[in-house]
Structures are given as structure tokens and as C-alpha cells.
Amino acid sequence: MRDTYVTVTCQAESEELCLNELFKLGCKLRFDRRLDHGVMLICTDLPFPEFSELVRSSRLIFLRHIAPVDVTQERDGDGFSTLPTELDALAARLDPTAAFGVQLRKCNVDAETAHSLRRRITEHLERYGFRHDTRRPQQVVSVYCTEDRLLIGLSRTFENLSDWGGGMRMYAYREDTISRAEFKLLEAIERFALELPVNGAALDLGAAPGGWSKVLLERGMRVLAVDPAELSPTLSSNPNLTHFKGLAQDLPMANGRTFDLLTNDMRMDTRESVEITNSMSRYLCDGGLAIVTFKLPKKGITAIVNKGLRLLEESFTLLHAKQLFHNRSEITVVAVKGKPLTVGSGEA
Ligand SMILES: C[S@@+](CC[C@H](N)C(=O)[O-])C[C@H]1O[C@@H](n2cnc3c(N)ncnc32)[C@H](O)[C@@H]1O
Predict the structure, then answer these.
(1) Phi/psi of residue 115, each to 5°?
(2) Is the CB of 68 inside a 6 Å radius of any atom of ligand 1?
(3) Separation of 314 CA from ligand 1 center, angstroms?
(4) Tens-place pLDDT, residues 282-299
(5) Which long-range contacts (CB under 8 A, 24 or more apart) does 249-255 make?
(6) Average pLDDT for 230-237
């Protein structure tokens, strides 16, 4: 069987964790080379759609994005002046009923070269009559451009794990952006297609300076923000926000008070953070969501993460656990209050 080459992407500091997850998949897999910080080329004996299906059903935490490599081309004397002839064979595989996008990533290549490549590849495929859509393509031509070669592959967008090239979901800083942390929650909501209850109540633990609280307020929620640190003054006049200026462990809570959502971005040891989340779950309504970041230690990450997930399962059913683009030394975990009806063996 023909080998399949795949670019895999994760956070730069999580390469080893990501590879370990991949090697545990149970398929034949070989590390080929590192292309950039957090970008690696691997080789498997599975066709890309099957590899993608295996990866998606295994819910890996540190792997953020995959893309197939169907065509490679060495750099010619003038840079990448000619497009690979195999691009025509790749065009023959495009679905004429679905829009395509070209996602180009580069390493040690100037922006002009990359921009021109993307334009030429797009125009080449458009000449066949295929419809190009940069915003919501259903199929993607992934191009990875290094100083000496081009790697190109075609896949369905969902097969790549993320709609964004390399899983790099960017958000623009706005005048009212409070903290970079905001982007973590925005990404989690988008990536996991979370539906937050409009007019619902949220308990936001570790809320300062208030980025997550702001995102929740913007979605029509009432927020109890808990943090000993100050919140941004831009939030102070919001009638839907209450700030308990103290530790989550000291939060006085009225009997019978309930929340629809619990968020926890507290900077603390994962075990303690999960214990607090579990104890707060009594204030969460049935079926209420918890969105929690696990802060990762320098060593023993896999054990800490697994213990944290198992502990969280004492009060919640895990839905997602992922290191998102906007997570640095942490992962984002989403869980729903209550036990699953049947005991599953799948890993979150
Ligand atoms: C990463 S920041 C949170 C950022 C916030 N989510 C935002 O969007 O602006 C972590 C916060 O956890 C808070 N924290 C740490 N331990 C805490 C505790 N025991 N109770 C409440 N907050 C705590 C810190 O004061 C800090 O403000």
C-alpha cells in the first residue's frame, strides 16, 4: 500500500506530547521530519480519509490540525516559478459541487512569494471552473511552503480537524478587548460549536481582568465573576455583572442559587482547580456546561491531564479536551454536569 504523508500541527512546546498521542493510535506511523515549530511531517500506511477518521474518533488533545501531502515539488532556480504538473491530477479529484479554498502556510519564505503562490494555485484551479471560497470552503488545498520545497494536498475541510490553516484561528484585537484570554473562550465556543444559554447565568472563576466575563456578557448572560484581582474598569458599569473580589474557595453562595454555565480559568494546580470545579457543580443546573482550562506543569503533563480528566468525571461527562491555538501551557476542557447514561470507553 502507498504511504500517506501528512503535516501535523500542534503548539511548539507540545510536539513530543502530540507525537506520543499519534503513536498510540495503533496504525503504522513514522515521524519523517520537523518542518517548523509545532509542524511535523509524518507518514502512515492509511489513506488520508481513514487516518483522519481514526484521529477524529480518538479525540487527541495536543494535535490541532492535519493536512495530506499528495504532491511535492523542489524549489527551482527562480523560486517556485512553475506550479507542479501533478496539480492537474489533484484538480481532477476536486468535487465540482463544493467550493474549494487554498490554505497556505510557510516557513522561511517571504510573504510575497507565498502570496503569489496562493494566487497562482487558486487561479489554476479556477480555470477548471471550480468555485473558490476563502471563508467557508468545503474542500481545502493545503500548501506548505518551505525554502526548498512545496507540499500540497487535497482534503475535505472537516478532515483537517480545523477549518483554519494549521488550526490557527486568529481574532483581531479590538479597542474593547480586555485580555488575550478572551480569545481562548471565543475559540472554544467556535471550535466546539457550544451553545451558551442566552439570558442564562454564568459563574466565572478566575475572572480577572474580565475577558471571559465580557464574552459571556456580550452573549446576553448574567455573570458572577470571582477573582481577588481587579476587573477591567470597562466592565464596572455593566448591570449584568457582579464581582466577588476574593478566592473561589471563599465564595459565599446562597442556597438554591444555580448557574447555567461554569467557567474556570483560574491559574492554579490542575488537581485543585478540578476539585473546586467539582464542588461548585452543585450550583450548576442539570445539563449545565463547564469550560475549564487545565494549567500544565513543566513535567508529567500526561499523568496530570489524565488525572484531572478522571477527577472531573466524578461530577461531569467530558465532551472535549483540546489544546487550542490560543492555549499556551494549558488545555481547554468542556464537560456537561452529570454522568453519561451509558458507560463509554472513549477517551475525551
Ligand atoms: C489567566 S487569569 C484569568 C483570565 C480571565 N479568564 C480573563 O479572560 O481575563 C487567571 C486568574 O485566576 C485568578 N485566580 C487564581 N487563583 C484563584 C482562586 N483561588 N480564586 C479565584 N481566582 C483565582 C488570578 O487572580 C488570575 O486573575
Answers:
(1) -60, -45
(2) no
(3) 23
(4) 999 999 999 999 999 999
(5) 249/276, 251/226, 253/283
(6) 96
> Does residue 341 have a pLDDT over 70?
no
In this predicted structure, the answer to whether residue 254 has a pLDDT above a threshold of 80 is: no
Determine the Cα–Cα distance for residues 177 and 214; give it in Å rounded to an integer. 9
Q: What is the mean pLDDT of residues 71-92?
A: 88
Distance of alpha carbon 335 from alpha carbon 319, whole angstroms: 5
Domain definitions of the chain by residue range? 4-167, 181-337
Give the residue carrying C-alpha cell 504511504. 3
Q: What does the DSSP 8-state code read for residue 210?
A: -
In the CATH scheme, what is the homologous superfamily, with its name and number, of domain 181-337?
A: Vaccinia Virus protein VP39 (3.40.50.150)
pLDDT for 79: 74
**How many CA atoms within 13 Å lie on the side-chain side of 233?**
0
Would you list the DSSP string of 131-199? PB-SSS-SEEEEEEE-SSEEEEEEEEGGGGSSSSGGG-------TT---THHHHHHHHHHHTT----TT
Q: Average pLDDT for residues 268-293, to the nearest whole number?
A: 97
Among 267, 270, 275, which residue has the most ligand 1 atoms within 8 Å of its CB, making it the best to mutate? 267
Q: What is the pTM of this model?
A: 0.94
Position 347 scores a pLDDT of 42
CA 259–ligand 1 middle distance (angstroms): 19
- List the CATH code of the domain at 4-167: 3.30.2130.30
Average pLDDT for 229-257: 93
